[in-house]
Amino acid sequence: MAYFPGLEGVVVKETEICHIDLENSKIYYRGYDLEELAERSTFEETAYLLLYGKLPTRGGLEQFKAVLRGNRAPPQHVTAVLQHLPKSAEPIDVLRTGVSAMAHGEDLRDRSPEAELARGVRIMAAMPYIVAAWHRIRTGQQPLSPDADSHAEYFLKALRGSDVSPLEARAMDVMLIIYAEHSMNNSAFTAVTVASTLSDMYAAVTAAIASLKGPLHGGANVDAALMIEEIGDEGNVEKWVDAALAAGRRIPGFGHRLYKRGPDPRLRVLRRLAKELAYAKGDTKYYAIAQRLEEYVTAKLAAKGIYPNTDLYAAVIFKYLGLPVDINLPTFAISRVAGWVAHVVEYRRKNRLIRPTEKYTGPIGLKYVPIEER
Ligand code: CMC
Q1: Example GO molecular function term (predicted)?
Q2: CA atoms within 13 A on the CB side of 16
Q3: Per-residue pLDDT tens over the stretch 119-157
Q4: 20: three-class secondary structure by DSSP
């Protein structure tokens, strides 16, 4: 029996959602070049594309945005749950609890792809509120549900309680588009695995959030931000990296299971956006550190197939957007939920229980010894 550690190279499903062209360093969502979507579309339009398989008409988009607006505040008991949590709880864990709590009180018997898709859209709609409400609750403020045209603007306003500039709203929108989908990553696979038992969308997304939390996956955007803060100045980059590598540590924001021959294609968009924000804010320190990290770590580790990934510049962009560092991670989830839901719905249309196997390497035939004789 073939064994693939980390399931590397194993095809688990056929898909029409995302194509990664390693040869030409391109990513396509439903056939559309992600760089063009990041430049010309909005998160709502891209999410619609991922979920429904085609770009919306103007009317279709307005309807979709109205559904999102109408479901931004989750059922009331969800806010009540948040209000009872210890203030030290990590935002990604609270988001996981909040999405899980959304399921309670809903009739979940209809598990058809259509019913699950509608649930997925409601979850997507409510996630910015849950993350922002938690940040406000833990800092002694009232949760807000402000008026806003876009998901990105709503999230930033609900989090900060103040106005958001058009550049900031657009930067967050681009981040949400860029993070929305990335083929069979660990959290998408987790969501699909859970859904393959015919469990429900709340369960699948809750599990996906649990997967995203890990520092080898989404958690890297928090670690990358902490690293940049710790480095503090571009002049300290080399010393910091040398010490980390000498201690056998991995550098957050570098390395990827797929991109072993060059950097992640999304880096082009994120590097540009980080630079634009840095100059607009008149503070290039974090951008300069990330740039120096990119150069230095690539020079040291490219021979091993290690290049920068999205989380390096995502950390810089979120810093310029004023996000508290631990909010970086649930912000990734607010976006990636589009991909999770799309994969769950696609898989459920041709569902087959996911049940791999393993290779047993332990002993057999041991004789049972009563406890008093051991
Ligand atoms: N810094 C230093 N060395 C590294 C790094 C890194 N970031 N990543 C991998 N390596 C080394 C690793 O130690 C191994 O070395 P050796 O052959 O000497 O033992 C070699 O490179 C191959 O590593 P691997 O573990 O086989 O690679 P993988 O494909 O299983 O791991 C990864 C991919 C993302 C888990 C890994 O690169 C990593 O831990 N990166 C840091 C965390 C990170 O940035 N994660 C975000 C990933 S992209 C966004 C997302 O998916 O959410």
Answers
A1: citrate synthase activity
A2: 8
A3: 999 999 999 999 999 999 999 999 998 999 899 999 999
A4: strand
Tokens standing for residue 33 = 């070049």
Q: Which amino acid is at 79?
A: T
Question: Which H or E element spans position 32?
Answer: strand 32-33
* Model ipTM over 0.85: yes
User: Of the residues 254, 329, 340, which should be mutated to test ligand 1's pocket, given the most ligand atoms within 8 Å of the CB?
Assistant: 254
Please give the domain boundaries of the chain with CATH numbers for all domains. 13-213+328-348 (1.10.580.10), 220-320 (1.10.230.10)
Q: Say if residues 260 and 22 touch (Cβ distance below 8 Å).
A: no
Ligand 1 pocket, 252 CB below 6 A?
yes
Return the ligand 1 atom nearest residue 260 CA: 29
List the Cα angle 122/123/124 in 5-degree steps.
90
- Residues 35-69 have pLDDT tens digits of 999 999 999 999 999 999 999 999 999 999 999 99
245, 251 contact by CB (below 8 A)? yes
Q: From CA 129, how far away is CA 165, in angstroms rounded? A: 19
Q: What is the DSSP letter of 256?
A: -
Assess whether the C-beta atom of 249 lies below 6 angstroms from ligand 1: no
